[in-house]
Write a structure and sequence with these properties.
By secondary structure, the protein is mainly α. It contains five helices and no strands.
C-alpha cells in the first residue's frame, strides 16, 4: 500500500499494516470456519429434533443421547469460534484505522475534487439550459403573437367568403411549430429541474467529504509523526521509564510532550490551506 506522503522511512506503517493483514486473514478464515460450524450445528439440531420425535417420551434411546451430545458439541464449537472472532476483532480494530487511512485519505481527496468538478459542470449546464429556455420562451411568445394575428386575419377572410375559405398553410405551420417548441421547452425545463436538484445536493456531499478528509488526514498526520519518531523511540521509552520510577502513577506506555505555542498556529494555517486546495 503506497502512502500519500513522501518519507524516507515507512517502518511504523509497514509494521502496523503487516499485523493488520495477518489478523484480517485470521478473521476471514475464522468467519469461513464459523459458517461451516453453523451449518453443521443446524444439521445436528435437526438430527436431535428428529430423534426426539421418533423416541419415547419416557426414556431416551441411545440414538437420542448421541444426537443430543452431537448437537451440544456443535453448539459449543460455534460459541468458541465466535469468541475467537471477537478476540481477533478486538486486536484488529485499533490497527484498522492506521492500515486503511492512507487509501481512504487519497479517496477523500479525489472525492472532494470530483465534487468540485461536478458542481462547476452542473452550474455551467444550468446556465446553458437557462439560456436555451429563455430563447424558447421568446419563440413561444412570438409564435403566439403571429398565430393570433394570422387567426384574426383568417377569421376576417372566413366572414367575407365562407364557401371558398381554406385555413391558411402558414397558420398550420405556425401551430405545428408552437407544439414542437412547447415539447422542447418542457424537456428543457425538466432537465433544468434535475440539474438544480443535483446541484443542491453537492454542498452537503462536499461537507461530508470534507469531514471524512479531515478525519483521515488526522490519522495520516499521526502516521507521519510516528514514522519520524521511530529513531527517537528509545529516548521516549527511557524518559517514560524514568518518570515511572519517579512516580508510580505514570502510564509507562505513554509520555506526553508539550508543543511550543509558536508552532501551533502556523500548523493550523497550513492545514486550512491544504483543505482549501483539496
Amino acid at each position: 500500500m503506497k502512502l500519500p506522503f513522501t518519507k524516507k522511512s515507512t517502518v511504523y506503517y509497514d509494521r502496523i499494516n503487516a499485523e493488520y493483514f495477518r489478523l484480517d486473514q485470521e478473521v476471514r478464515a475464522a468467519q469461513g470456519e464459523l459458517q461451516e460450524a453453523e451449518v453443521d450445528c443446524e444439521q445436528k439440531r435437526q438430527w436431535l429434533y428428529e430423534a426426539n420425535q421418533r423416541g419415547s417420551r419416557y426414556q431416551s434411546s441411545e440414538h437420542e443421547k448421541n444426537a443430543s451430545l452431537a448437537a451440544s458439541e456443535a453448539s459449543h464449537r460455534v460459541s468458541r469460534i465466535k469468541a475467537s472472532i471477537g478476540e481477533l476483532e478486538g486486536q484488529i480494530n485499533p490497527l484498522r484505522r492506521i492500515a486503511l487511512a492512507p487509501d481512504l485519505y487519497d479517496q477523500a481527496k479525489k472525492e472532494l475534487a470530483a465534487l468540485a468538478t461536478q458542481g462547476k459542470g452542473c452550474a455551467a449546464q444550468i446556465d446553458q439550459t437557462d439560456g436555451l429556455i429563455a430563447k424558447l420562451i421568446k419563440r413561444v411568445s412570438d409564435l403566439q403573437t403571429r398565430i393570433a394575428s394570422e387567426t384574426a386575419s383568417a377569421s376576417q377572410t372566413l366572414f367575407n367568403d365562407e364557401v371558398a375559405f381554406v385555413v391558411p398553410e402558414a397558420l398550420h405551420k405556425m401551430e405545428a411549430e408552437l407544439r414542437l417548441v412547447g415539447v422542447s421547452l418542457t424537456d428543457l425545463q425538466a432537465k433544468r429541474e434535475g440539474l438544480g436538484a443535483t446541484l443542491s445536493e453537492i454542498p452537503k456531499a462536499t461537507r461530508d467529504a470534507h469531514q471524512e478528509f479531515i478525519g483521515y488526514r488526522a490519522v495520516v498526520a499521526e502516521i507521519e509523526l510516528y514514522e519520524q519518531l521511530q529513531p527517537a523511540m528509545i529516548l521516549f521509552a527511557r524518559a517514560s521509564a524514568a518518570r515511572r520510577q519517579a512516580g508510580y502513577g505514570h502510564d509507562l506506555r505513554r509520555f506526553d510532550i508539550e508543543i511550543p505555542h509558536e508552532l501551533l498556529e502556523p500548523a493550523a494555517v497550513a492545514l486550512d490551506s491544504e483543505l482549501a486546495r483539496a
